[in-house]
Write a structure and sequence with these properties.
The structure holds two protein chains of two kinds.
Chain A: E1 8-14, H1 16-22, E2 26-31, H2 40-46, E3 65-68, E4 71-73, E5 84-88
Parallel strand pairs in A: 1-5
Antiparallel strand pairs in A: 1-2, 3-4, 3-5
Chain B: E1 6-12, H1 18-31, E2 40-47, E3 60-65, H2 69-85, E4 89-95, E5 97-99, E6 104-112, H3 115-132, E7 135-141, E8 144-147, H4 154-159
Parallel strand pairs in B: 1-4
Antiparallel strand pairs in B: 2-6, 3-5, 3-7, 4-6, 7-8
Classes of the chains: A alpha+beta, B alpha+beta.
Chain lengths: ~90, ~160
């Protein structure tokens, strides 16, 4: 039986220019049970992913999009242990 | 999937030959009744330009995607467009990896009962691919790579004509 106090993990993924600027593509982030559930904006701040544009701490760049479990999501959606969170720079397909 | 809708979404790490891909798709439809060739079919083939957005010679385009999400998102877009326009068939083939100038990067083929839904559905799905499917382009020119930040809005393209 899992320990109720054990932290859960959220997988964070970065792509394209954002990945290269951060220097990593995937990271497991621990979230404590019993703590408020973090949002994408919280993890953006915690992981120091700001782009140095002087935006307030924790504020996401306007063009950035969020995916949770491979589906587009709002930055203020609360995350759960086991989720896969991706920060997506501006898309350029087609 | 909507009843009667035939859909194929493929990401191609190797060369995409649009008319061959289209012939394979049409053969598949003919061999799998009740699917058939549609009364109206709209196609879009996109190829890589020879210059970058800033006008310098392009060596190659590199296409990154989000494995799993990109395919799923294209399917979601295709299903929504098919439902809105009453489409019977949707084919999307999109390159990933390194693509050279002149090579095909995307094929969209949409089948419907009439030209209006086919053409509108094809345009709408292509715009979805450009703005709402997780792909990222990097232009290589002079040995330097530069990530492309977003796509040109369709309205701006129309204004420049």
């Amino acid at each position: 039986m899992p320990c109720p106090e054990a932290p859960g993990l959220i997988t964070v993924r970065l792509f394209a220019g954002l990945r290269e600027r951060a220097g990593w593509s995937e990271r497991a982030v621990a979230i404590g049970t019993g703590q408020p559930r973090p949002t994408a904006a919280d993890l953006w701040c915690r992981l120091g992913l700001g782009d140095g544009t002087g935006k307030p701490e924790g504020s996401l760049p306007g063009a950035l999009r969020i995916a949770i479990n491979q589906t587009f999501a709002h930055a203020d959606q609360e995350l759960e242990a086991g989720d896969e969170l991706a920060f997506l720079p501006p898309i350029s397909g087609g | 999937m909507a009843a009667g809708l035939a859909m194929r979404v493929r990401l191609q790490p190797e060369g995409l030959v649009p008319l061959t891909a289209l012939a394979v798709w049409q053969r598949h439809l003919l061999q799998n009744p009740p699917h058939a060739l549609p009364p109206a079919e709209a196609l879009f083939i996109g190829r890589v330009r020879s210059t970058t957005a800033s006008g310098t010679p392009l060596q190659a385009l590199e296409l990154e995607h989000y494995p799993g999400m990109t395919e799923a998102q294209i399917e979601r877009l295709a299903l929504a467009v098919a439902a809105r326009h009453g489409l019977a068939q949707v084919l999307v083939e999109h390159r990933v990896g390194r693509v050279l100038p002149g090579e095909a990067i995307v094929l969209v083929a949409v089948g419907a009962d009439r030209r209006g839904p086919a053409q509108r559905g094809c345009l709408e799905l292509l715009e979805g691919l450009k703005h709402d499917a997780p792909f990222w382009k990097r232009e290589w020119s002079g040995g330097v790579g530069r990530w492309v930040e977003g796509n040109t809005p369709l309205s701006r393209v129309q204004e420049s004509l």
